[in-house]
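Entry 12.
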Amino acid sequence: MITSPNRARATVLTAAATAALMAAIPVATAAPSTDLRARNCVAHPGGGCKRSIVVEYWHKEGASQRGIGWVYASKKPARKGTVYYARWTYKAPGRAWKNGAGWKKANLTQGSNGFFASVWWGRGGHTGPQVPKGTQVCTQYRDERSSTCLTLK
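Predicted 3D structure (tokens):
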């Protein structure tokens, strides 16, 4: 294929202009972020956790806001054939309780010591709601009055 000298010159000039523009645009550097995972377990008399909560969250260095990536809840023992539902809620310091998500059907899994129910919300990464430091996050199963909670540091 034969290219004309004018076309070659235009390609070089376009590349040079693009490079000059890119050099002139300041690149924003994001503050480093810290990814954390918090857990809480209500001990089961036979070992393990009767109820548990795990929250993956993140924050930028020095920031007072925390982002929630995902929330996990589990309950043991669970009966085969029973349908369990759970939800997660949160309360920022000095504010009212809010639902993180409505009731969601839990998965029933057979473990080494019988069945347990588990459910999770979120996609991971830096995708969820932003809440202040010190926010309390709780999970609750519909058939239980008590919740399992933790506080985001």
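Annotation: Strands lie at 33-43, 49-60, 65-78, 85-91, 97-105, 107-111, 114-122, 130-132, 136-141, 148-151. The first helix runs from residue 5 to 24.
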